[in-house]
Amino acid sequence: MGTTSLLARARGLLRIRNQLVRECLAELLSTFVLIIITLSSAAQKITSFETKGNLLTSYLAGALAVMVGIYTAGGISGAHMNPAFSFAMCLMEQFPWWKFPIFVVVQTLASFISAGAVYILYYDAIWHYSNGTLTVTGPRETASIFATYPADYVSIANGFLDQVIGTGVLMVGVMGIMDNRNKGVPKGLEPVVVALLVLSIESSMGSNCGCPLNPARDIGPRLFTYLAGWGPEVFRWVEGRG
């Protein structure tokens, strides 16, 4: 009885009653889960010389990470995990504009923290693979573990268009899945269908720029790599990465 009472009191003291704080923490956790799985799949693929992962496993991990993130916080914050999605929800008047900058900061912060966690998790592998030099280009580059970079043939205009189309398809697909007037997805399986949508986009539109589809997924980890030793080159449009 004593232990049960103590646990009940502890839960009462730790319970967060402010709805905005609850939503922000949920968004932080869901985005953290999304990005740490996504980046870890890239780290495993790259640092193992693709012996323990390949492009398909990276795409599959990223898609399943979306599913896990939605299941983690979908009932609290909506598990946006993506400033583009938050923006779309604001345009459709399903999310208040005043919350938009707050969610963007939380999503970017979570991505930054996730990048740090992946760097710690794969620290030895990254330094072994890179021969002790953190680079953005070259055969042993490791920056692409954390952020996406264009193929060497992609122009700025083509890269911009690539992301507009890819993210647009994602938004249209998610809105269609959420629309009750369409053919309904069985209740509770919406995250699975969204994951399949993401996998289909990654499998068909990933060759140009890596298919980030999420500003927070790219900005947070890119900022981390800048601070962690890769330097300002991570913010440049780099050609000839191979």
Radius of gyration: 19 Å
Largest sheet, in brief, is: none
Please tell me the overall pLDDT: 91
Assign an overall shape: globular
The CATH topology comes to Glycerol uptake facilitator protein
What does this structure look like?
- The chain is mostly helical and 242 residues long.
- The protein has one domain (18-235): Glycerol uptake facilitator protein (Up-down Bundle).
- It has nine helices and no strands.
- Helix 3 runs antiparallel to helix 8 (190-205) and helix 4 (83-91) runs antiparallel to helix 5.
TL;DR?
Keywords: Cell membrane, Glycoprotein, Membrane, Repeat, Transmembrane, Transmembrane helix, Transport. Its main location: membrane. This protein is an all-alpha fold and 242 residues long.
List the helices and strands and how they pair.
Elements lengths: L1 H13 L4 H29 L7 H19 L9 H9 L8 H22 L1 H7 L26 H23 L11 H16 L9 H16 L12
Q: What structural keywords apply?
A:
242 residues, mainly alpha, globular, cell membrane, MIP, glycerol channel activity, Aquaporin_3
